[in-house]
Amino acid sequence: MRIVVAPDKFAGTLTAPEAARAIARGWRRSAPGDDLVEAPMADGGPGFADALHSAFGDSSRIEVVTVPGPLGEPTPVGLLLQGETAYLESAQACGLHLVTGERPMDATTVGVGRAIAAAVDGGARRIVVGLGGSATTDGGAGLLAALGATADVPLDAGPAGLDGVSHVDLGAVRDRLAGVELVVAADVETTLLGMFGAARTFGPQKGLTDEQILTVDHRLDQFVQAVCGTTPAERRVADLKGAGAAGGIGFALMVLGAEVTSGIALVAEASGLDELLEGADLVLSGEGAFDYSSRAGKVVHGVATVAMRHAVPCVVLAGRIDVGSREMRALGVESAYSLVDRVGEEAALAEPARHLSDLAARVARSWSA
């Protein structure tokens, strides 16, 4: 059999390349004659730059810059450079893993703006920003401040600093980015404001209390008005899909004219997933939690969608599975297997690579011809 191994990261335990290697290693134990191709995937969140670097190979290089993290601490960020294009993973500058829920009202996207500035200063004429996994909900205010935006309140102090904002000047930002193409690679389709906006949807996982969520949503509404204006037509950008990605970084970049694309679609194209699946017998994908959110621009759904175009069955190996068989098949997944169901959560977290390999070996006995 010819099998494509195309997992996402297993958040907090395995990167996508590590997961792909573990799956392939286990599969080969049970089916040594099968031909396996490893193609680690990512959406716009953590692992985005690594997956693209793996796909591009020697035609790209990583340049590390140091920027302020979400709470101001020096943080390294890898700019993936290929020709005049720079790929930036926003989670490296403001990711949730950098703060573990601490001081969510103060978390800022300044570091993402500094990384964009470094890419521009280095000669990049196209910048692709992968969004996802952020600790921030500042609407991208810090990002804009780092690029030269000014306002009547501090833009670099997280949502805590946006109270009462009424005027934002983006003139210096537009001048600095003149002639630079911006692309948003988003892992979600969330809008910025309201019931299904950035604060209400992702605020709890970032440590915001119920009261803070209401406060942040209100301040983001004020921020939109200060940046865009008061009429529905002027404020429309806040209602676009992806505006709420990474706590509103999507909004800030869209205001600057960024094109929006799916992060998984971009990585799949760069990796040649369509070509890899031509003539394949099976594709194996996976992620830490295969749940309802997997539908919204995530890796498993993206891989399954490409697989359906080639009539290739998609099987998922996940840390845990929180979807039923009907929803699974609606996502284009033929079958799914859980590490937690097999060995328990504690063991799965303690030795994820070993147990993922063992699970793959077991699955191979059922699926390998």
UniProtKB/TrEMBL annotation:
It comes from the Bacteria. Transmembrane segments: none annotated. Keywords: Kinase, Transferase. InterPro entries: Glyc_kinase_flavodox-like_fold, Glycerate_kinase, Glycerate_kinase_RE-like, Glycerate_kinase_sf. SUPFAM superfamilies: Glycerate kinase I. GO terms for molecular function: kinase activity. Belongs to the glycerate kinase type-1 family. This is Glycerate kinase. It comes from Aeromicrobium duanguangcaii. The lineage of its organism: Bacteria, Bacillati, Actinomycetota, Actinomycetes, Propionibacteriales.
